[in-house]
Design a protein that fits this description.
With 404 residues, this protein is of the alpha+beta class. The chain folds into two domains: 163 residues, no CATH class; 204 residues, Histidine kinase-like ATPase, C-terminal domain (Heat Shock Protein 90). Helices cover 61% and strands 11% of the residues. The protein is built from ten helices and five strands, in the order H-H-H-H-H-H-H-H-E-H-E-E-H-E-E. Strands 1-2-3-5-4 form a five-stranded mixed beta sheet, with helices on one face. Helix 6 crosses helix 9.
C-alpha cells in the first residue's frame, strides 16, 4: 500500500520558504555571511542549511515538530559554516510555528525547553569567556529560541481564548434557540389544549344532534335538536372569540383574564344534561371539597377543563346511565377530580373522537406535578357493571405553577 501523499503546502508557507531561500542566496552571493572568517568548509556549504530550512518552511503547519527537530540540527550545522543570517531567521519561525501549530504538549514544552537552553547557554558562555561577550551570546540564543517560543505561546493562548469565547457564544445562541423553540412548542400545546377543551364540547353536541335531526323524521325531535345545535353554535363561537382575543393580547399573562372556575361547574353540567338528554344520560355533581378554601388559579382551571373534557367524552361514547362528577380536596393537600361514566356503546349517534382530549388532560395534570389515570373500572353497587373513570390528583400548593 503506497504511503499517503504529503499535504499541499499552504500558500503563505510557500511564500515564506521562497522569500527565505531567495534572500539567503542573495546574501551568500554578496558574501554577506555571519562569520566570513570561518573558512574550514567551502563557502557553498552555507547553502545546505539554508536549503533545508527553506524545505522545512514549506511544511511548518503540517509537520511543526519534525520541522523544529530537523531545523535545530540544521541551525547547529550552520554554525560550522560561514553562516547565513536568513537561516537563523527561518529557524526562529520554525520555533514559533512549532508552538502555534503543534499539539498542546509541544506548545507547553518548547517555551520551557528554550528557556532552560538559554539559561544554560548563557551560564556556559560566561564561564567559558569570562567576559560580557558570553552574556551577549546568551541573549542572542534567547532571541533566536526563547523569544519566538514565548511569542507563539502568547498568540496560541489568545487564539484558544477566542475559540473558547466563540464556542461559548455559539452554545449560548444554541441554548437560546432551544429555549425559544421549547417555549413555542409549550405555548402551542397550551393553546391546543385551550382550543380543544373550549370548542370540542360544543362541536360534539352539534355533531350528535345534527346526526339525530338527519336520521329521525320527527318535527319535534328535529326542532329540539336544532335548538341544541344553535345553543352550542353560539356558545362555541363565543369561546372562539375569547380564544382569538387571547391570541391577540400583547400582555404577559399566561392565562386569559376571564379563565373559567369551578363555580361554573353547575352551568357546565346543565348544558351537558341538555346535550345528553337524547342519549339517555344524566349528570350529577358531588362537590365534597372545602368551599372556603381558595384554589390556585392553575389548579382551578385544570380541574374545570378536565371535567369539561370528561363530559364531552361521555356525550360521545358513554352508554345510557348516570355520569357522576366528584371533587374532593383538603386544604393545603390536593384536589382530586373523579368523573365516572357508564362504560359501553352509545345507542344513539356518536361524534368521532381523536384521542386528543385524554392527551390534553394528561398534559394539564403533568404540568402541575399531579397524577392522572383513565380507564374502565368496576361500577358502584346498584349502578353500571363497569364505568369509565377519569381521575386526576392536582397538588394545591399556593405558589404552584405549571412547570412548562
Amino acid at each position: 500500500m503506497p504511503p499517503p501523499p504529503l499535504p499541499r503546502p499552504h500558500r503563505l508557507d510557500a511564500a515564506i520558504a521562497a522569500t527565505g531561500l531567495t534572500g539567503g542566496l542573495l546574501l551568500w552571493s554578496l558574501d554577506l555571511n555571519v562569520t566570513p572568517e570561518r573558512d574550514l568548509l567551502p563557502s557553498w556549504v552555507t547553502l545546505v542549511p539554508l536549503a533545508v530550512m527553506a524545505l522545512l518552511e514549506l511544511n511548518r503547519r503540517t509537520m511543526p515538530r519534525t520541522g523544529l527537530v530537523i531545523g535545530t540540527i540544521a541551525v547547529v550545522a550552520d554554525q560550522f559554516t560561514q553562516g547565513n543570517l536568513v537561516t537563523i531567521v527561518m529557524f526562529t519561525d520554525l520555533v514559533y510555528a512549532a508552538v502555534i501549530y503543534g499539539p498542546p504538549a509541544t506548545a507547553r514544552r518548547v517555551p520551557v525547553t528554550t528557556f532552560l537552553v538559554t539559561v544554560a547557554a548563557t551560564i556556559g558562555f560566561l564561564a567559558w569567556f569570562r567576559n560580557p561577550a558570553g552574556l551577549l551570546l546568551g541573549i542572542i540564543i534567547g532571541l533566536v529560541s526563547f523569544a519566538p517560543a514565548t511569542t507563539g505561546a502568547i498568540v496560541r493562548n489568545h487564539r484558544e481564548a477566542a475559540d473558547a469565547a466563540r464556542l461559548r457564544a455559539e452554545q449560548t445562541a444554541l441554548l437560546a434557540e432551544m429555549d425559544r423553540a421549547q417555549a413555542v412548542v409549550a405555548e402551542r400545546a397550551r393553546m391546543a389544549r385551550e382550543l380543544h377543551d373550549m370548542v370540542a364540547n360544543h362541536l360534539s353536541a352539534i355533531a350528535i344532534h345534527s346526526t339525530a335531526a338527519l336520521s329521525l323524521d320527527e318535527p319535534a325531535t328535529t326542532r329540539q335538536a336544532l335548538t341544541v345545535i344553535r345553543e352550542n353554535s353560539v356558545a362555541g363561537l363565543s369561546e372562539m372569540r375569547r380564544l382569538i382575543g387571547l391570541l391577540r393580547d400583547s400582555s404577559d399573562d399566561t392565562e386569559p383574564a376571564a379563565a373559567p372556575t369551578l363555580a361554573g361547574l353547575e352551568s357546565l353540567l346543565a348544558q351537558a344534561r341538555r346535550n345528553g338528554q337524547a342519549s339517555g344520560l344524566s349528570f350529577v355533581l358531588d362537590d365534597a371539597r372545602d368551599q372556603d378554601e381558595s384554589l390556585p388559579a392553575p389548579v382551578e382551571l385544570a380541574a374545570y377543563r378536565i371535567v369539561q373534557e370528561s363530559l364531552t367524552n361521555a356525550l360521545k361514547h358513554a352508554a345510557p346511565g348516570e355520569v357522576s362528577v366528584r371533587l374532593v380536596g383538603a386544604p393545603g393537600d390536593a384536589l382530586t377530580v373523579t368523573v365516572d361514566s357508564p362504560f359501553g356503546s352509545s345507542p344513539g349517534p356518536r361524534a368521532p373522537g381523536s384521542g386528543a382530549g385524554l392527551v390534553g388532560m394528561q398534559e394539564r395534570v403533568a404540568l402541575l406535578g399531579g397524577d392522572f389515570g383513565a380507564g374502565p373500572v368496576e361500577g358502584p353497587p346498584g349502578g353500571a357493571a363497569k364505568v369509565w373513570r377519569v381521575r386526576a390528583v392536582l397538588p394545591m400548593e399556593k405558589d404552584k405553577e405549571p412547570t412548562a
